[in-house]
Amino acid sequence: MSGAKDQKSYPKLDYDQYARTLPADDLWGQVKRTVAGSPVDSSHIERIVDAIRTGLQLAPGDSLLDVGCGNGALSRLLFDSCREFLGVDLSEYLISVAKSRFESLPAFEFLAQGVVEYLRKEPTPERFTKALCYGSFAYFSAPDAAESLHLLFDRFRNVRQLFIGNLPDLDRAADFYTTRTPSEEELCAHDSPIGIWRTKDEFATLANGAGWQVRFSSIPGLYSAHYRYDALLYRPAN
C-alpha cells in the first residue's frame, strides 16, 4: 500500500476523547460500531453476538472476561449466556457509561484500567473460563498486543478459548481505502482511526508466539466483512 499517493501523516484517534464528543445515548457511535457515521443496524449486532456465543461455546457456568470492552453495549448482550462477567477498558468515560447503564453487581462488573496492567495484576485469574476482545485489539500498541496474549495464556490458565473479533485485514485494506492510499505508517499505527492492520498470517504468528492456536472466520453479510476477520484462539490439545 505504498506509492505516490501515500500520506506522510495520518489522523490520530484518542478513543476516550472521541467517545466524549458523542451524545450520551449514542452507544454504538461511542465505540465506532458505525457505517458512514451512523450506528449499524440491530441485525448486524445480533450476528456479532451469535458469532461470539458460537465461537466461545458460551455456557451458563462460564465466567467471561472482556478486555477492551468499551461502554458495555455489546458486552451486556452476553450476560444471559454466562454466570459472571468482567469488562475492562482504559477509557474512564466509556466505563462510566457501562457502569451506569449495564453493571449489575456482583456478577456483572466493569473496571476502568489499562488492559495489560489489569492482566498483570488480576488476583484470581483462574476464575475465568472464556475471554473476549471485540473491536479493540487493533488499538492496542504492538507491545501491548503481544503481552496481552502472553498474559492471557500464561496467567489465565482456565481460559480455554479467546475470541478476538473485527480485526482489520491488511490483505484487504484497499477494499476499505477506496478513495486514498494510506501510508505504511498509518497501517501500522495503533492510534490511527482503524488501528493496526494485520494479515491473517501476521496475526497467527503473534498468537502462536504466545502459545495459542488460532482459527479464522468471518460473518457473512456483516457490514465490515469485506475488510475484517475474526480469530478464535484456543489452547493446544494436551
Task: Summarize the helices and strands and which ones pair or pack.
Elements: H1 15-20, H2 27-30, E1 34-35, E2 38-39, H3 42-56, E3 63-67, E4 84-89, H4 92-101, E5 108-112, H5 115-121, E6 130-134, H6 142-154, E7 161-168, H7 173-176, H8 184-187, H9 200-209, E8 213-217, E9 228-234
Helix pairs in contact: 5-6
Quick recap:
With 238 residues, the chain is an alpha/beta fold. It has 9 helices and 9 strands.
Radius of gyration: 17 Å
Strand order of the largest sheet: 5-4-3-6-7-9-8
Structural class per helix/strand content?
A: alpha/beta
The total of beta strands comes to: 9
CATH superfamily: Vaccinia Virus protein VP39
Share of helical residues: 25-40%
Q: Looking at CATH, which topology would you report?
A: Rossmann fold
Helices and strands, in order, run as HHEEHEEHEHEHEHHHEE
CATH class: Alpha Beta
Overall tally of domains: 1
Give the terminus-to-terminus CA distance: 41 Å
pLDDT averaged residue by residue: 94
| Biggest β-sheet description | 7 strands, mixed
Q: What is the name of the CATH architecture?
A: 3-Layer(aba) Sandwich
The fraction of residues assigned to DSSP E strands is 15-25%
Number of helices: 9
Stretches where pLDDT is under 50 for at least 5 consecutive residues are: 1-7
Shape: globular
Report on the architecture of this protein.
By secondary structure, the chain is an alpha/beta fold. It has one domain (15-234): Vaccinia Virus protein VP39 (Rossmann fold), CATH 3.40.50. The protein has 9 helices and 9 strands. A 7-stranded mixed beta sheet has the order 5-4-3-6-7-9-8, sandwiched between helices. A two-stranded antiparallel sheet has the order 1-2. It starts with 14 loop residues before the first helix and ends with a strand. The model is unreliable at 1-7 (pLDDT under 50).
